[in-house]
Amino acid sequence: MVARVFGLKGSIMKLKQGSFLWYLYLDKLYCLLSVRNVKALVEYFHLLDVHHKKTLNGQYFHVLFYHFLHHVTDLTRNQITVVFNMLDWNTVGEIGFDQFYMLVCILLAQENHLEEQFIFRHSRPVFELLDLDGELKIGPDHLHMYNFLFNIKKQQLRDLYYNFDITGDRLLNYKEFKLFTIFSMDKYQESQKAEKEKKKEKAVLKKKLSQVNESQRESLLGIQPFESISNYNC
Amino acid sequence: MEGKPLKASAKSSSHHGSGRSSLQDIRNMWTTATLSQPKLNVQLPTVREDSELEDVSVSGKTLWSYDQKAGHDAEGGWEASDGGEDKDSFKPEEPEELELGGDSSQGSRLEEDDSKTDNEKPSSVSSLNISRHTPHRAYWVEQQSRLPLPLTELMENEALEILTEALRSYQSEIGRDHSLTKQLQRYIEGLKRRRNRRLQVLAV
User: Where are the transmembrane segments (chain A) (predicted)?
Assistant: First the structure.
């Protein structure tokens, strides 16, 4: 309900095609940018750091940060505000490069369907981001509020709190959250494996079909081409 | 010899699918050469270009310069020197780090042997030599610790668009006469001038 009120429910975020971030990519294993990508990102950040404070300011309705996200994604104003508040973990009203880097990794993870992997690999920082109140526990509202970033589906959320809330307080501490990330990662890898095998089977089937078609065509024609010439000569 | 030609961003964008199956095309945006270039003894004129993006009063000026020094190593060529803060961030990468994206999962390593360059020039260079090497300037810029030119252009164009929109917000929210608005306006103009200058250089 909270998410609905803030206009946060809805489709998952998409990066604008052809934007600078769109050309970056995460390492699939560690879900981090390569050094070269980081270097490019630093340059990009410096270009946006108009006031030379090494931050994107949050004053005046976090203008620079808002326009940046608005330009490169399809996030709404409310969603951008939520993201800003999430990243401004020092509550200074500005986003430094560390937070900017974190945001870019999250955006790229989502864009490349690596959410499970990303949350698994970086469970601690993600947990700390979600722990808005600093109570070292996160409730279902927190997760649901950031659904557009982390793409945790409703069913997953239910499973999460049903299966992993070991302490029974309807909140997840870090250990419980970590267990959840391990579990989702396992599930994700299994589904990837199953998909790969499906693709393999399809490829094998295709090959067999084409071979069968080939042999059928030959049998329809009756004789091989070189035989027809020799018959003619005779 | 010269490396692979830089591909325009427009080409890469058409290959991009939702499943990111065209990572190879993205990599084409980047240089395929390693940074471990042979020493550059090619003489190029020294040019200093102060960044006009910043006020005089603001610290941390960025001075873009390129010097040609005899026996210069691969880091030479273009250098970005500022107040000292960002210098470390522009350290050249090790050749291994040029492997784009993930290692085992992404696979292909983009490298290029470009060692056979003409690097035996005397220090006093004729204008003819300069003009002969001028077309290669963009190439050498990329071979150093700078970003590939298409990517730099893309970044600057996008930053300009974002900042122009931000300027409108600044003007409506805090007024045209506010110092921050004026600073942003000057910055945008400086960025445009720098971009135009670079385009002129490339057109030569």
Answer: none
